[in-house]
Specification:
heterodimer, A: 2 domains, B: 2 domains, four-stranded mixed sheet, 10 strands, 25% helix
């Protein structure tokens, strides 16, 4: 502090004393107590540290929808291909029925989240390729119809032998489920990636992959928990998905962009890191272990499945919640660097401000 | 000054714009009041922010004009020339009505449309409250009203414009800080005003109109002093749809990988046991 400044501050003390004794209060302009939250707007502090982006306004049903939809789409693909390529008819039928149930639940969850649920059909009045939400609604609707068709074919098969209607429904149902199961199980990664929310936007290239593989793992896990713990094919798919998730997890940890802070800190960071372990290394270890024992195989497979499902749920809830935390980071959209160790006094004072009222 | 019967002379099909000049704003909030009254928007309560005299805080579903109260470093010429007073200026914020609008691209129902005046309009009778526009706006303008279930934002007073009247906020502005007119004319006017301000020594004055980003410019330009960050205006706003190609590419890659894994697994290991 220069001498001139310090003598100015000293004379201010006299001034304050004089004013206080005279009027009983200090009202002069320019009073700036150290640490007081006297706000300022500047290129360094933005507009009083108020975040300019709006927080996502989805209900907790949406991450659940991401989970159910991801699993359902993958189940549709497995259910359509498993008995066509392999010989596991029971497993394939089960997968198809679960896909049908899953797509129905998905629709209910999506509709329930709308501010005006009665207007769900407004989504279907247009098809808009540049709107992921529009594409997703059509994919969900189409997939639900095809999944229902293949389930209907399965029911008809048990009633009538060689019904041509069943053959027709089976063909279009399975083709549709395979084709639409592909976008349905991972479009939610595109949905959140292509937004203005920094943490999602930063991972726009990996979120579709990560959400897709997470859906595939949930599908395998749900089938295993429903009793299909003997299928080596399912175990192999589970291993592929878990290996993929492990790789994605390592990639995320290695990327040090500041936009990704919510995936590494706080509750959202804890959820996403937990998800990484539960859907990556842990199921890999359990699945590999299940190969070397016949006595405990069932238990190990069930444990891997449970881990995968909880991991997938943590992943969806963690990432959606991270979006809310990210939207509150006022610095990122303004391109203002994080404060360093030599944080100035004004910055600290400004940071201690309470958040704005909504 | 325009009277009630004055016609703007602007016909549907001509692109209109706001030009909000912070160097003329006196912070009276007439625009906020006029907007609320004309559009019948609900009140937001008597909340105190505690961080400045700005108690409106931000644009939102019930706030389509927001006067920012920008207190800054002591700067002679802004908010008086006193050496003790912080600088003190105002700027009325509003929906940017982007040339390429994130909210409009994202809307799955077609509720958000481009009007005959080039602005972005949200049709409340179509909106189903999916709130995808909320996270697609790089300016944080659109917001869902949780009580009502739909999203709302500035209409650019399309109803008034159709009748040849200027938007309510522009009409109520006592200092013509909010100018309304044809986009091309206002772009010229902004340059003229900028030259005037700079010739008067306000060398930090600038026009905020992000034409250099994927937003491709806005239909509510601003004249500000200093950097846009001070006004919570993003220096590089981007329309999220520019990331779609990368995102779908990633999705396609993963979908093929999934089908490959399923086919290979059942082909080689598909037998029971």
């Amino acid at each position: 502090m220069s001498e001139a400044q310090s003598s100015f501050r000293e004379s201010r003390l006299d001034e304050i004393r004089r004013e206080a004794s005279q009027f009983g209060t200090v009202q002069q302009a320019g009073i700036r107590a150290a640490g007081s939250p006297l706000p300022k707007a500047s290129p360094q502090t933005g507009y009083y540290q108020q975040h300019l982006l709006k927080e996502p306004q989805w209900t907790p049903l949406v991450p659940l929808y991401f989970f159910v939809g991801g699993a359902s789409g993958s189940l549709g693909v497995i259910g359509s291909l498993a008995d066509l390529i392999g010989e596991n008819d029971d497993l394939a039928r089960k997968a198809r029925h679960m896909a049908t149930a899953g797509s129905t639940i998905s629709s209910v969850l999506l509709i329930a989240d709308l501010g005006r649920p009665s207007r769900f059909l407004n989504m279907l009045r247009i098809f808009k390729p540049q709107s992921v939400m529009s594409v997703g609604s059509w994919v969900l609707s189409g997939f639900s119809a095809f999944a229902a068709a293949s389930t209907l074919a399965d029911i008809l098969d048990t009633q009538i032998d060689g019904s041509p209607i069943a053959t027709f429904l089976r063909t279009i149902g399975r083709t549709g489920c395979t084709v639409l199961g592909m976008p349905f199980h991972n479009y939610t990664g595109v949905l959140i990636g292509a937004t203005a929310i920094p943490v999602w936007n930063n991972r726009v290239r990996s979120l579709p992959r990560e959400f897709g593989m997470s859906g595939l793992q949930s599908a395998v896990s749900l089938l295993e928990l429903s009793g299909e713990t003997d299928s080596n094919a399912l175990n192999a798919i589970g291993l592929v998905a878990a290996a993929f998730e492990t790789w994605e997890g390592i990639e995320l940890l290695r990327t040090r962009d500041r936009e990704l802070a919510p995936t590494k800190q706080g509750l959202t960071g804890a959820l996403i890191q937990t998800a990484g372990v539960l859907s990556g290394p842990l199921p890999i270890a359990l699945r590999l272990a299940s190969l070397f024992t016949s006595r405990r195989r069932r238990r190990l497979r069930q444990a891997a499945a449970l881990s995968g499902i909880i991991g997938s749920l943590c992943l969806r809830y963690g990432w959606v919640a991270a979006g809310t935390v990210s939207a509150r980071d006022w610095r990122i959209p303004l391109n203002i660097p994080e404060p360093d160790a030599s944080t100035s006094f004004d910055r600290r004072a400004a940071d201690s401000l309470t958040r704005r009222t909504p | 000054m325009s009277g009630a019967t004055d016609h703007t002379g602007i016909q549907p099909g001509e692109v209109t714009s706001f030009l909000t000049d912070s160097t003329l704003c006196i912070g009276c909030k007439a625009c906020e009041v006029a907007c609320k009254e004309w559009n019948g928007i609900s009140a937001d309560g008597y909340d105190f922010t505690g961080w400045s005299y700005d108690n409106t805080a931000a644009l939102g579903h019930s706030t389509w004009r927001h006067v920012k109260f920008v207190e800054g470093e002591i700067t002679p010429g802004i908010g008086g020339n006193s050496a003790q007073q912080l600088s003190w200026e105002f700027s009325s914020d509003v929906c940017k009505h982007c040339e390429v609008a994130g909210c409009l691209e994202a809307c799955p129902t077609g509720s958000l449309v481009r009007t005959e005046f080039g602005s972005v309009f949200l049709q409340p009778d179509i909106c189903n409250g999916c709130s995808y526009c909320v996270i697609s706006c790089p300016f944080g303008v659109v917001q869902k009203n949780e009580d009502d279930g739909r999203a709302f934002k500035c209409t650019f007073c399309t109803d008034r414009q159709k009748a040849g009247m200027m938007p309510a906020c522009a009409k109520a502005c006592p200092t013509e800080s909010i100018k309304f007119g044809r986009l091309d004319e206002l772009k010229v006017e902004a340059q003229v005003r900028l030259a005037t301000l700079q010739s008067r020594g306000m060398t930090d004055a600038q026009i905020y109109d992000p034409t250099h980003t994927s937003v491709k410019g806005i239909h509510s330009m601003f004249i500000i002093r200093g950097e846009p960050e001070t006004y919570n205006l993003p220096p590089r706003p981007e329309v999220p749809t520019i990331y779609l190609k990368d995102a779908w590419k990633s999705a396609a890659f993963e979908a093929v990988a999934m089908v490959g894994a399923v086919v290979a697994s059942f082909f080689f290991l598909g037998r029971k046991g």
